[in-house]
Fold:
Amino acid sequence: MELNENMEKLTVSDNQDIFDHLRKLMEEESVSQEVLLNFLRKCSSKMDWSETSEILSSLIDGLMDVKINLNDFSEMYPSESDYELKVLQLFASRKATQISFLEIKNAVNPSENNPPQIESQMWTEITKFKNVKNLSINKHQFLLKDLMEMCKNMPSLNEIEVVIDCESELRIDDPQFIQEFSSSFKKIKEFMFAPTGRAFESYKTMSFYKKLMDFGIKNLPNLNRILPIGINFYMSKACMEMNITSQLQYLRLNAIYLEEFASKFDKFPSVQTLAVSWSEWNDNSEGRKINENKLNLLKNFTKLNDLHFSNFTSPEHLKHKMTINLKQIQETCPLLSTLEITVDDVEESQCMSSFTSLRYLDIIYDTESSEKVCLINLLSPPNLEVVHLKGFLVTRQGLREATSKIKGKAILTKVNKFRLYLKGHTSATVRGALENEGKRLVNAVLKMRQIDKEAVTFQYL
Structure:
């Protein structure tokens, strides 16, 4: 690397240490992004943004990273938008073919994020990164038409995560717009979009993002995933209107419509992750278990390996409990590696040792039931790596049996994280006895697996 002529003019005695460091860095064939950023932060405390950008210009050719977050550079001068644009232009002119992951992101809660609209000069510079595959921006928001134009000119782009202005035009019944939308995003595999913070204040504005998600499902069949960030919209309606085969790998559905949606299952052969809300307010039967017919429908998702059941608890006006049989889930979805459930009660009377595909088990009991669970059956899948059980009751004998099985290397032989949270509605004496047994169980896991203490937890809620 050669020292920029303009840099020579910047050398003054007050900054001699900076320029000594600069010359050393320039003698290296390459410089890591971490080293570069630390050096630029040092420069920014003594120089204005134009001088710091000259230093970056002198060092950028030695940067070998394929991923950058522009915010790491622009946060040095947060009030200088010209500096952010200057840095983007430097990377676009000198590193456009090298960068494959481009971010302009800061840490912010989506509901509090109201970023300025991205200027055409900036997104035009972004289109120069012809090899970028992953683009993630939350410091600026896009009009949908600008996002479409930008993506159309980035041939390698397949994942985007952006903030979209709820005032964007979305002409869902216009054939020409549908064609332009489909053409602009035809190579995108993951389409993640966040509402602006102000959109969370109004149902009307939030409905724009639901329409955008449904519109994307129906008109972008090559998508693997489309999700609004910070909102859980159901996809059932759009899926039921699907007439072409989709490559979606993630679906979020409402169980109420499962039977109606069943005729369209063949349009979604690639689904690997399924989130189902199981709250059925119109069912008043007593002693009701999960609707087995609906659960059996999930057999149609032959590639399913990640299953999430939410709202699997009774509405307050119902007196019965929602109960699910884990053995039935195994028989319905034999390839599951991840199972997450929020439920009133679990039927775990059968040993699950044949559930060899299961790696991640997360069950939250949302009930006032006094029934005890059979812990060793829940922990019997032989390849479990992560276990999280919360809100349940267990007997002292049940803990002893689990500890014995662990010591005998009959269960949890591959676990890396283990968390048990008991309900606290017991007497002080019983609680003390259970806590002692819990400590023995924790020690048995730690001794067998030789993992960090922070990875194993046993406590009362």
Remarks:
- The domain at 100-233 is CATH 3.80.10 (Leucine-rich repeat, LRR (right-handed beta-alpha superhelix)).
